[in-house]
Design goal:
By secondary structure, this protein is mainly alpha-helical. Helices cover about 60% and strands about 5% of the residues. The chain is built from ten helices and five strands, in the order E-H-H-E-H-H-H-H-E-H-H-E-E-H-H. The relative contact order is 0.12.
């Protein structure tokens, strides 16, 4: 690696942030696509405005891009549960819900009413304490499932940390000719040896990894990590799959309970027959 006698890049918290970069982040979420979301965060994180950030900053950039989407979808989900019952019995049953043109059931096409007015608010039916309890239980289950989907999808199912490492490793980085660079620094700056090392003039080499630009990141990301181009769709689709798994596990548990009871009944009948003989 080439040896450069310059100072080690300073880390830590920045003292100032460009207000235009913050405005660009807000406007990108309001009007642009996920690609512009990442690019706006990229410019905000780039402290020296050279268009280059290191691998750790790249990972932080993607995490910051995902966080507003997670918060927004969580807020939409909570508001949806406030205005829409989880179970149709919350409106008095399926038939009663169709009479009220419940928007989540759609408009009945058999009556020839295509442009029927869909009410924005449907008053809930009066429920017994048992049905209210079931409604609250289902809301808790759905909320917990959705929160789990948000927390796990990109981290575990999409394998974001692994994909980001691949993006950085496979990108053709022009900075430092895509090679490590060695920097000569005072040992006391990193090792905390104090005044003794400074007096002795002790030095050491620090290897700096090359930085990556957004264009280089994007060139590999669209092939390796296309999930970032459809963040909201990815989360909603994953939530639907989690609901399928939840329903399948409940159905499997019911079948297992039924088969277990039938097996015990059959064993009891056989034992009774043996005992009578």
């Amino acid at each position: 690696a080439a040896v450069a006698k310059n100072e080690l890049p300073l880390g830590g918290q920045r003292s100032t942030v460009n207000v235009h970069s913050i405005k660009s982040v807000l406007m990108s979420y309001a009007q642009e696509s996920p690609q512009e979301w990442i690019q706006s965060w990229w410019k905000l994180i780039d402290a020296d405005n050279d268009g280059l950030i290191d691998q750790e900053e790249m990972n932080v950039c993607v995490e910051l891009c995902l966080e507003p989407v997670h918060l927004a979808l969580g807020d939409v989900f909570d508001r949806t549960l406030e205005v829409c019952p989880v179970r149709t019995i919350g409106l008095g049953g399926v038939e009663e819900a169709r009479k009220k043109n419940a928007w989540f059931l759609g408009v009945d096409q058999d009556d020839g009413v295509v442009d029927a007015e869909i009410p924005t608010y449907i008053p809930p039916a009066k429920l017994s304490w048992r049905n209210r309890r079931k409604e609250l239980q289902q809301r808790k289950i759905l909320t917990k499932t959705f929160q789990g989907t948000i927390a796990r999808h990109f981290r575990d199912q999409a394998e974001a940390p692994h994909r980001l490492r691949c993006i950085y490793a496979w990108a053709e980085k022009a900075h430092q000719n895509n090679k490590l660079d060695s920097v000569l620094v005072d040992a006391s700056e990193e090792w905390g040896a104090g005044a003794a090392s400074a007096v002795m003039g002790r030095k050491r080499y620090v290897e700096l990894e090359p930085k990556i630009s957004y264009e280089e990141f994007r060139m590999v990301q669209k092939k390796t990590f296309p999930h970032l181009d459809r963040i909201g769709e990815e989360i909603v689709t994953s939530f639907k799959e989690d609901l399928w798994l939840l329903q399948g596990s409940k159905r499997q548990n019911k079948e297992l309970k039924r088969d277990g009871l039938l097996f015990l009944l059959a064993i009891s009948v056989v034992d009774l027959g043996i005992w009578m003989v």
